[in-house]
Amino acid sequence: MAEPIVDARGVHKHFGALHVLKGVDLAVSERELVFVIGPSGSGKSTLLRCLNRLEEPSSGSVVVDGIDMLDPRTDINHARRRIGMVFQSFNLYPHMTALGNVTLALRKVVGKSRAEADELGLAALKRVGLADRAGHTPGQLSGGQQQRVAIARAIALEPRVMLFDEPTSALDPELVGSVLEVMRDLRQSGMTMIVVSHEMGFARNAADRVVFMDHGLIVEQGPPASIFENPTQERTRAFIGQIQRH
Amino acid sequence: MSTWDRFVETFFNAKVMLKYYPDILSGMVVTIELAVLIVVSGLLAGLALALLRALAIRPLNWLIIFVVDLFRSLPPLVIIVLIYFGLPAAGLSPSGFVSTWLSLAFVLMAFSEEIFWAGITSIPRGQWEASRSTGLSFWQTLINVVLPQALRLTIPPLTNRTIAITKGTALGTVVAVTEILGQASSAMSNSYNPSPLMMGAAAYIVLFLPVVVAARWIETKFAWKR
Amino acid sequence: MIETFLNPEIIAAIWPIVLAGLWNTVLLSLIVVPLGLMGGLMLALLATIHHPLVRWPLMAWVDFFRAFPPLVLLVLLFAGLPFAGLELGGFACVAIAFFLNTGAYYGEILRAGIESVPTGQVEAGRSTGLSRLQAMTHIVLPQAVRNVLPDLLSNTLEVVKLTSLGSVVAVPELLFQARQAQSVTYSPTPIVLAAIVYFLLLWPLVRLLSRLENRALAGRR
User: Fold this and answer.
1) Minimum distance, in Å, between the CA of residue B139 and any CA atom of chain C
2) Beta strand pairing call for A192-196 and A33-37
3) Residue boundaries of the structural domains of chain C
4) If I label C30, which of A127, A238, A241, B81 is the partner at 20 to 30 A Cα–Cα?
């Protein structure tokens, strides 16, 4: 197998006395779509946030696209350009338009001129189907539209990896589809994606690998078919059973 | 003479007012100078302290909190008196004007730091995370994402506080600053007539009432529209 | 340095005077704060009458006394009134000036507090037969006060600090005593001592206020 683009080894995370991640190894290849599932409190979000160092791992190593994320000598701001992140609560900047949200990092981190940034920003918004909303502020957009702008904000920087932290959990059901479509699109274009989510239908159809986490450890992982139809571990079986009852 | 005429003759004596109104006017200039100096230096210092506090360096924070607490606890008049009458013993001789300016600027610095800090900390963590995750540095995030939102929140309490503190310029009289009250008081003792004081009162109203009304308007305009 | 600013001999000599001043400051505060609160409550209750003939004069009154520097008001009463034949002592002038000035501030705070209580509360109360006064006293005011407690405390802190203005009209509170002592001893020690006393007196309230404000903020997130 070629060098994994995301290589996390032995990641531990303590929050005070709480041991949230108990030694997680995760290797993700280029163009792979990895889906992370598990009960709440299993550490899925924490693991994701350790990958771009929004959380500091207590121990272990995280290498993304050849960069040691945990090395104090690494320019973390520079490194984060290669990793896009989409949040459950969108976190769009309310005081800027959609275009402003997308172009801020292009101007400040990449150093593009306003004209160049606007051009790239509009292209990103076009990819998510919202070029006509470029001048709207987040308050004027629906939840699904806001999340798509958030995705545009991340992809405008041309990251090598995209992290999705429960991207549709805060959306009304009828808006979920539009966001999933954008995510499917990204997958088609060859983006490496790590998704924490409850959207099992999406996992079944689009994921290359499903990872089941519980109590801070990876319990089982494999192609969606085997995880959903033939889990080998008892806990996996129990979890799948619970969610399929819906 | 009727009571009303006597009242007007005493408190609104035309001759006295004519004689002393230039003094009141020059007093107004001094009051305005003081107020502008206080507002600019106080707010800038307060913002600087709040930004320093955002660095989260513990010993520095303790120092900042102590200084802020100090200037929130002491009455402004006490600080003025301390600077004007106390510093000469250490070899410094600040004028009444400087003492009043420094004292009120320190007080505004302390109160505005608290307000700026409250604004900054009320910005949800998600804003920091989203911005940092796109590669913006701490300072870039603070300046482009957090402060624009925080400043909006701080304007109503800030305008209130600033007005309250700049009214303290009247305290300068105690250390012989020739602002409105000082001029009015000397004019009153020289003429043995309270009309200058009435003019002084009118001068304060002319200066501050529009500011208070404007503040009310600003408060409603900057109510956060979500 | 200590010799000049915290001279032990001078401290030993003057501390009874300073203590007397402190006592008067506390006494003054205990009188002036309730006065201001009462004035504020009256104004806030008046503000609940939404008639424009009441609203505009009320707003004018409040804005006037918020714009007018308290020291000027004090001097006006103390030095100006004698010309009208009214010789009020320093203490009475302070009481009146503070009633007018802090009453306006307390009034605004309480008005905001009352407005922050949802009208549904009053409706619920009235529907069980409570009169308007009872609804105000038992339902609205307790919630209103709780909602604006930090602002009320903050303003009270300001009022206590304002008592130092009494020194200008010869009320023998803490600052006045300190300045007297300073002019007699030609030393800044009395003033430094008074500053320390003010700090010790008011700092706990400042800390409490800070904590309350931070807690209110965390809740709002």
Assistant:
1) 23
2) parallel
3) 21-173
4) B81
Write out the two tokens for C55: 């609203």
| pLDDT score for A246 | 57
The helix (run of H) or strand (run of E) holding residue B194 is none
Of A54, A95, A153, the CB nearest to B129: A54
pLDDT, residue B36, reads: 93
- DSSP label of A81: T
Q: What is the pLDDT of residues A5-16, one digit of tens each?
A: 999 999 999 998
Which amino acid, C123?
Answer: E
Residues of A in contact with B225 (CB under 8 A): 139
Distance from CA of C128 to the nearest CA of B (A): 35
How many distinct structural domains can be found in chain B? 1
Q: What is the pLDDT of residue C29?
A: 93
Which pLDDT score, from 0 to 100, does residue C219 have?
Answer: 54
Confidence of residue B78 (pLDDT cuts 50, 70, 90): very high
Helix (H) or strand (E) holding B169: none
Question: Is the four-CA dihedral B9, B14, B18, B24 of positive or negative sign?
Answer: positive
**B48 Rama class: left (phi>0) / alpha (psi -120 to 50) / beta:** alpha
What is the domain extent for residue B117? 3-222
Contact B134 A109 (CB under 8 A): yes
The Cα B116–Cα B98 span in angstroms is 26
Q: Mark yes or no for CB contact A153/B135 under 8 Å.
A: no
Structure tokens at A183: 């995510």
Residue burial C75-108, b: 16+ Cβ < 10 Å; e: rest: bbbbbbbebeeeeeebbbbbbbbbbbbbbbbbbb
What is the value of pTM for the model shown? Answer: 0.81
DSSP letters spanning chain C: -HHHHS-HHHHHHHHHHHHHHHHHHHHHHHHHHHHHHHHHHHHHHHHTS--HHHHHHHHHHHHHHHHS-HHHHHHIIIIIGGGGT----HHHHHHHHHHHHHHHHHHHHHHHHHHTS-HHHHHHHHHTT--HHHIIIIIIHHHHHHHTHHHHHHHHHHHHHHGGGGGGGT--SHHHHHHHHHHHHT-SHHHHHHHHHHHHHHHHHHHHHHHHHHHHHHHH-
Of A234, A226, A185, the C-alpha closest to A209 is: A226
Q: Is B69 in CB contact (< 8 Å) with chain C?
A: yes
Q: What is the pLDDT of residues C131-166, one digit of tens each?
A: 788 888 888 888 888 888 888 998 899 999 999 999
Which CATH number belongs to the domain containing residue B135 in this structure?
1.10.3720.10
pLDDT of residue B132: 93
**CATH says C21-173 is which class?**
mainly alpha
**Which ranges of B82-194 would DSSP assign to H, the alpha helix?**
96-121, 125-133, 138-141, 147-166, 180-191
C-contacting residues of B 165-194, CB under 8 Å? 167-171, 173-174, 180-181, 185, 188, 193-194
Q: Which of B129, B134, B225 sits opposite A157 (nearest CB)?
A: B134
Q: Edge to edge, what strands does the sheet with A18-28 contain? A: A18-28, A6-15, A59-64, A67-68
Give the C-alpha separation, A32 to A161, whole Å. 10
Residue-wise pLDDT for C152-211, tens only, equals 998 899 999 999 999 988 888 999 999 888 888 888 888 999 999 999 999 999 999 888
Closest CA to C199 of C181, C182, C174: C174
